[in-house]
Amino acid sequence: MAVIGASSDGNVFEVNVPPGGAGLTNYDGSVLDAVIVGGGIAGLASAWDLRNRDILVLEASDRLGGRIRSETRDPYWLNLGAHVFSGPGSATARLCADVGVEVASVPGQLAAVELNGRLVVGGRPELYPLRLPLTASERVALSKAGARLRLAVARYRNAAAPREGESAPQARRRLLQFGDDQTFADWLGPMPGDADALFRATVTRSTADPEEISAGQGIGYFALVWAAGGGLSRNIVGGAGVLVDEISAELGDKVATGCEVTEVTPAADAVTVSYTRDGRAEQVTARQAVVATRAFEAAAIVRGLPDDTQRALEAIPYGPTVVMAVLTDEQGPMPWDGIYALATPKRSFNMLFNIANVAHARPGHRRSGGSLMMYRSAHGAVPLLELPDGEVERAFLDDLYAIFPRARGHVRETQLLKLPRMLPYPAPGRAALQPALDRPLGRVHLAGDYLGGVYSDTAIASGQEAALAIRRSLA
User: Apex CA 403: angle with CA 399 and CA 406, to 5°?
Assistant: First the structure.
C-alpha cells in the first residue's frame, strides 16, 4: 500500500507499508518515527525501547532473532545459537527483566575437558594439567600459560570496571584497546601438541583461531566464562528464543519478515529505506533509522557513509560455525549430568553443552530426556561447511558416543545449522576502527555485536543506545 503525505515543513513523501507492517499513525500522517533494519537481537532491543512509537522492523529472513535461535521441545528446547548471557547490571539483564522472561544462573561445571579419551570434570582448573593425559612438556607449558592467563584475566577485569562519567561507547572503545597490539597466539607463545589443542578448543568459541583474534579478546573471553556469577553466566529459561518471541508478540504488526533491504538513504529531514518483498520493490520513509545488520551488510546498504566508517564496517571479520542440536530421550541420570560446558579438543566438534541442565536443576523437575548442543567454529568449521549435512551429523554423533557411550540409542532428534559468517571478532588493531563506528551519522544509527567484544550484550546495548538517541531526537 502506498501512502502520500506532507510533513510539517512541506516535503512530500511516498511511503509503502507492507502487509503485516506498521501503519502510518504519526501526528502528521506522513512518515514513521523510525525504521529498524534487521530483526536480530540488536534490532529487537531497539524496537522494544521504541515500541510505543510509530516504527517498522524489516527483517530479510522468515524468522527473527538472528544468531539467537532455539526451538521448544517441552519441557526442553533445541538450541542452535547464543545460549549464555551476561548477568546482573548488564544490558541483557535489563532487557530480560523489562520483557519479563525468566533467567537463571548457568548450572553445572563450565570448565570440563575431554582429551584423548579422558574426561576431567570439577576441581580447580589450574590443576587440570596434572589430571589430563599430557606429556611432560605439554603439562609444563599448559601450567605456565594458565598461570599467566589468570593474571591477565585479573588485569582485564580491572580494565573492564566501570569508570565514573564514562559512556558505554567510551567504555567499549577503551576495552577494545586492551591487548590490541598482538594476536592471542603471539601472547601465549609456542604451545606444544595437546596444550595448544586445549587452548584452541576454548578460544575458537569466538569463531576465530588464536592466530586471528586479538590477545585482549582472547583474555576477555576467559574473563567472561570464568566469572562466577558474572560474565556469561545466565540461561534464559525455556530457551533464548523465548526472549525473541516475547518481544515479537509485543511488537505485533510493527514487524515485517521477508523484507530484504537494498538501500538506506538519509537526507536532511528523513531516511528512505528501499527493500524487496515477494519480488516487489518497496520503500518506506522515517525520521530516523537503526541499521542493526552485520557490519558488512551495513556497509553495503547505507548510502553516504563517511569513508572511514565505510572502511571500518568492511574491515570487521566474521568467523564460521557449524552447530548441531540434539534432543535425547533418556529416563534417568546420564554421565553428562553436572556438566554444562565441555571442551573437546581433537574431536569433530570442539565444544559440547548440556542445554537441559537449567531445566533439570529446577525444583520438582521429573527427569525425562534432555538437550545437548555441539559445534565446531573457526577454520576447523570450514571443511564441514562443504560436507553433506548427514555426514557432519554422523561425525558429531560418533564423537558424542565415543565420549559418552551411554548416549547411544537415546538420540531422538538432531538439527544441523551451517553458518559461514556467525560472529564478528576483534582482530589486532580493532580498536583503531572504533571512532569511525561510534561517530554520529545523523539520522542513521548503527547497532550490532560487532561494535564491541561482549557478544549478545554488545548487540543489545548498542540497540538500546540507538533507541535512546531516537527518543531524544523525537522529544
Answer: 105
- Side-chain-side CA neighbours of residue 83 (13 Å): 27
Contact yes or no for 171/92 (Cβ under 8 A): no
68-72: long-range pairs with CB below 8 Å, 24+: 68/40, 68/41, 68/240, 68/241, 68/243, 68/244, 68/456, 69/240, 69/241, 69/417, 70/239, 70/240, 70/241, 70/242, 71/239, 71/241, 71/325, 71/415, 72/238, 72/239, 72/241
Determine the Cα–Cα distance for residues 85 and 459; give it in Å rounded to an integer.
12
Cα(24)–Cα(325) distance, integer angstroms? 41
| pLDDT higher than threshold 80 for residue 1 | no
Q: Please identify, in words, the CATH class of the domain defined by 103-236+318-424.
A: alpha beta
Q: Domain-by-domain residue ranges, the chain?
A: 2-66+241-316+427-474, 103-236+318-424
Give the strand pairing for 70-73 and 76-79.
Answer: antiparallel
Type and span of the H or E element at 394:
helix 389-403
Hey, what's the cell of 362?
Answer: 529446577
Segment 258-303, tens digit of pLDDT: 999 999 999 999 999 999 999 999 999 999 999 999 999 999 999 9
Using DSSP, state whether 451 is helix, strand or coil: helix
Nearest 5°: the CA angle 339, 419, 199 is 45
Strands 259-266 and 255-256 come out as: unpaired
User: pLDDT confidence of 475, banded at 50, 70, 90?
Assistant: confident
Segment 295-350, tens digit of pLDDT:
999 999 999 999 999 999 999 999 999 999 999 999 999 999 999 999 999 999 99
Euclidean distance between CA atoms 252 and 261, whole angstroms: 20
The tens digit of pLDDT for each residue in 432-443 reads 999 999 999 999
What is the C-alpha separation between 122 and 104, in angstroms, rounded?
21
Average pLDDT, the chain: 91
Q: What pLDDT, in 10s, does the model give residues 31-50?
A: 999 999 999 999 999 999 99
Residue 376: closest CA among 348, 399, 353:
348
Contact, 254 vs 21, CB < 8 A?
yes
Confidence band for 28, pLDDT divided at 50, 70 and 90:
very low
- Nearest of 308, 338, 345 to residue 438 by alpha carbon: 308
Burial class (CB in 10 A: 0-12, 13-18, 19+), 469: middle
Higher pLDDT, 21 or 231: 231
State in words which class domain 2-66+241-316+427-474 has. Answer: alpha beta
Predicted TM-score of the model (pTM): 0.92
φ and ψ of 390, to 5 deg: -60, -35
Which residue bears the cell 554423533?
Answer: 397
